[in-house]
Amino acid sequence: MSDAPRETFTLDFLEWTPWLERAVETDISPEQRERVDSAIGDAPNSAYIAVLANDFEAWQARALVHRHVYASENPEPTAWRELGATTASRINGCVFCASVHARMYAHAAKNRDLAGRFLDDGIDADLPPIERVVVDLSVKVTTDPESLTAEDLEPLRELGFDDLGILDVINYAAFFANANRLMLTLGEPRPQHKAAA
């Protein structure tokens, strides 16, 4: 663990450095090593996945949920999902996840300035109405999920969200409340190394 963990939220690309051995660095059988290598391949965030793969079956189950939650090519729900993930990450202090998902939100919403302002100003940032209700719901899911009521969903319904759209926001915020805690306890973000010219 470094003496100075990165605490500044950013839209920049970051690297993630694990504090634990990756599964392939441990004393596993050649068959298990091949299984892990084959499953992970050159996936994004492979260092993080390789640490999670120390419990290979648990990682596989989590990966299925992750893929299911992410299964959409439609930019609008993708934007709200990513804003939900960014909100949870911002609250939990996960600089790495906030960076990734703020960029994904910025791309889907075509609004990099708003994504940057949200990272800078936090959950109380001045936001347009739809972003505000997505952030408010994500805040509640992240900080006090047991208190969530049907009343908390009404602002989204009033702005045109259907049940599945609301569920998407909830699922993303909930998933990242968990993912942030894993990343924060297993390693730390660092500025991305640039290749020498």
- Describe the largest sheet: 2 strands, antiparallel
Total tally of structural domains: 2
SSE run:
EHHHHHHHHHE
Radius of gyration over alpha carbons?
A: 18 Å
Poorly predicted regions are: 1-6
Count of helix runs: 9
CATH class of the largest domain: Mainly Alpha
Mean pLDDT: 87
Instruction: Name the helicity range.
Output: 55-70%
How would you describe what is shown here?
By secondary structure, this protein is mainly α. It folds into two domains: 14-69 and 186-191, no CATH class; 73-185, Up-down Bundle (AhpD-like). The protein is 61% helix and 5% strand. The chain is built from nine helices and two strands. It has helices spanning 30-40, 46-52, 56-70, 75-92, 95-109, 112-121, 129-143, 154-158, 163-186; strands at 14-18, 187-191. Strands 1-2 form a two-stranded antiparallel ribbon. α5 (95-109) runs antiparallel to α6. The radius of gyration is 18 Å and the shape is globular. The two termini are 29 Å apart. The model is unreliable at 1-6 (pLDDT under 50).
Give a quick precis of the structure.
The chain has 197 residues and is mainly alpha-helical. The protein folds into 2 domains: 14-69 and 186-191, no CATH class; 73-185, AhpD-like.
